[in-house]
Amino acid sequence: MRDLSPVPGARRSKDLSEKNELYAAPRAKTKRKALIYGLICAGLVVVVIAVAVPVYLFVVKKSGGSSDNSGSSSGHTGTGSGDSTGQQTPVAAVTTGGDGSTVTKDDGSTFIYNNTFGGFWVYDPANPLNESARAQAHTPPLSEQWKWGTDKIYGVNLGGWLNLEPFISPALYEPFYPNAVDEWTLSELIMARDGNLNAIEEHYKTFITEEDFAMIAAAGLNWVRIPLPFWAIEVYPGEPFLPKTSWTYFLKAIEWARKYGIRINLDLHAIPGSQNGWNHSGKIGQINFMNGVMGLANAQRALDYIRVIAEFISQPEYIHVVPFFGIMNEPRSSATTYPLESIQSFYAEAYRIIRKVGGTGAGNGPIISIHEAFQGLSQWTGFLPGADRVALDTHPYLAFGAMSADPIESFVAQPCSNWGGLVSDSMSAFGMTAAGEWSNAINDCGLYLNAVGQGTRYEGTFEGAPRIGSCDQWTNYQAWDQATKDALKSFSMSTMDALQNWFFWTWRIGESAATGKVETPFWSYKLAIQEGWAPADPREAEGHCASLGAAVNTFTGTLSGGQIGEGTGAGPADLASYPWPPTTIGGYAGAALVAQLPQYTATGALPTLPVPTLSGAAASATVSMGSGWHDATDTTPMAVPVSGCVYPDGWDALTAAIPACAVPAAKVKREAAPAAGPTLMP
Ligand SMILES: *[C@@H]1O[C@H](CO)[C@@H](O)[C@H](O)[C@H]1NC(C)=O
Ligand SMILES: *[C@@H]1O[C@H](CO)[C@@H](O)[C@H](O)[C@H]1NC(C)=O
Ligand SMILES: CC(=O)N[C@H]1CO[C@H](CO)[C@@H](O)[C@@H]1O
Fold first, then answer.
1. CA 318/CA 132 separation, integer angstroms
2. 276 lines ligand 2 (CB under 6 A)
3. What was the pLDDT predicted at 1?
């Protein structure tokens, strides 16, 4: 997330007397407590009777089988009693459950699944690929095709989990204040302190767990967007990130999403060399993707990582759980970095690659989501017309514009007018458009929000902004009164109504180690549920703008043709007008100059992402979990450094000299491997 919102910012400030009223516990809370106790008491009964879905029986061998079984079977009402022959013991294992059912996790511990929307979980060790689970009755099960533009995405990001951000998990950064400012420096400092990066894996293990997926479904949400860094695949020498490990946890996310009927938008969030110079790209500072001496080489690496991910998620075993691929978070295209035509060439090349991997047409490979690159949605009208399933991504935020002391009430209707029309117009003019990020923040208050060691515009301590007031009232959520919460909820709902298909940023904000509490409360959906400023059901938001008397232009059309994978298969007519390599790399305008830039050469081994290892009872399942690589005919090697050549540092190359030895652009062309099935290569 960042501040280059292409939409109008907040209004100018007026005075607001700070609120110091004590937090009055909302009535709802008492009611909820009673409900909670009721559920606990009813728990066991509910487990047995409330599940109207089939219960599967499977047989475990008496010797040695039972411990396997207890470890991973879900639900556990089974009380298999030994039979007199001592041969085999039938154990009833619950493989699915609805509201109030008990879920048993990998480690044998249990929790209660709550879902008042008719959702149910499914996990059958005999068929770990079962796709019947539903997040809610109104959300299609994974086994059914998502209807783009008709079914509504009510999503949250799992931000700061596998791709770290200081304001999301401040406790990881605080011990190193002010030196850890991004994942690069954090990794270096943890390595220096511990001699390993176990602390980062510990974060993966604990920050998001299975319960979160259950709670997300219980909150009426049906999608998650998961930011993933390229180092989930590999690192190059000199890159201090923890390599490969986050992939293991992404596989857990796939398992849990499948179990709870939630779909995943995999968002490649950090790109070699940095696509935006912001902390969440891995390294603050330079933009070396598509910019400067290593701009093209870094882009080659990025394309290969996109291919490796597309090869994984296009497999039939995974495509229904991960049908949405955000290929790059927030590329910061501009006249001083890489211009629109450059990022469009990159997107077009990614499109060729992904569609070649998965084939064309609904269900073949993911919908491809491209961020509007801070150009505004309308700039994308007419880009790749007729393309097979390309979606636009936009991140509208109020938090980073001009600050205002006005009360939350004054912001409530803004999303309706500011954003509703933009998204709907884009749905009509371009096709599927979703807001990959938004938050409740009406200002930039909160620990590390603008970066470690930086202040806030609101307090007049960042970027020369004039002071508006103290941030305390906006960060000390325990003191918020009911009116504040109601206004915040209303702001949330008008944003949901305006954006229509959305992913809140973010599900969870970790507590600060210093204060033991969340310091950026506007940014946590989990906290919003707990403290009462999230709608119980996001569908309540529909019509909210109208109820406020604010006009919102809701998309009422239908997407068709290539937009939903029902195109002619001809592909976009203008694909050839977006060449790869592009004719401009930041600082090098014109094919002749681009041709001088160093490139990697396609001679490297292909890194296939591993498939999950089944454990417990599932270990004996006979289903194939795939090979990790969808298209066996895709044997184009990875682009790697030319052996013997010394390249400039890919993260610090803006002023480097061009090496004489690296392959000049003109000599390298992506090899088209023999095509099996439909191909869009022109
Ligand atoms: C479901 O509700 C019960 C109390 O009714 C609670 O203990 C449990 O943590 C909830 N489950 C989840 C996943 O939040
Ligand atoms: C998946 O699980 C559900 C619920 O247990 C069951 O009804 C369905 O038949 C299963 N489908 C497959 C393909 O195993
Ligand atoms: C300097 C910098 O990169 N700051 C960004 C760090 O991340 C936060 C949260 O995403 C952004 O708001 C900052 O702009």
1. 14
2. no
3. 55
Encoded tokens for 359: 């084939």
In terms of Cβ atoms closer than 10 Å to its own Cβ (0-12, 13-18, 19+), residue 486 is middle
Is the pLDDT assigned to residue 483 strictly greater than 60? yes
Separation between Cα atoms, residue 186 and residue 183, nearest integer Å: 5
- What is the SS3 string spanning 207-253? HCCHHHHHHHHHCCCCEEEEEEEHHHCCCCCCCCCCCCHHHHHHHHH
pLDDT one-digit tens code per residue, 67-126: 333 333 333 333 333 333 334 444 557 899 999 999 999 888 999 999 999 999 999 999
Q: CB–CB of 336/296 below 8 Å?
A: no
- Bridge-based pairing state of the strands 367-371 and 390-394: parallel
Tell me which of 317, 437, 459, 531 is the catalytic residue.
437
Length of the chain in terms of residues written: 682
Q: What is the pLDDT of residues 350-380, one digit of tens each?
A: 999 999 999 999 999 999 999 999 999 999 9
Q: CA-based angle 494:500:506, to the nearest 5? A: 75
DSSP assignment, residue 174?
Answer: G
In whole angstroms, give the CA distance from residue 122 to residue 124.
Answer: 6
Say how far apart CA 562 and CA 430 lie, in whole Å: 11
Asked if residue 131 has its Cβ within 6 Å of ligand 2, the reply is: no
Rounded CA gap, 33 and 52, in Å? 26
In angstroms, what is the span from residue 56 Cα to ligand 2's centroid?
9
- CATH code assigned to 154-195+225-564: 3.20.20.80
pTM for the full model?
Answer: 0.87
- CA dist 227 and 157 (Å) reads 8
Could you tell me if the CB of 130 is within 6 A of ligand 2? yes
- Distance (angstroms) between ligand 1 centre and the Cα of 527 equals 15
**Cβ atoms 584, 338 nearer than 8 A:** yes
Ligand 1: residues with CB < 6 A are 36, 39-40, 111-112, 114, 211, 214-215
213: its two tokens: 């997926």
| Close Cβ partners of 361 (under 8 Å, ≥ 6 residues apart) | 388, 565, 566, 567, 569, 678
CA 122 to centroid of ligand 2, rounded, Å: 8
Q: Which atom of ligand 2 is nearest to the CA of 55?
A: 5
- Whose CA is closest to atom 13 on ligand 2? 130
Q: Please provide the average confidence, as pLDDT, over all residues in the chain.
A: 86
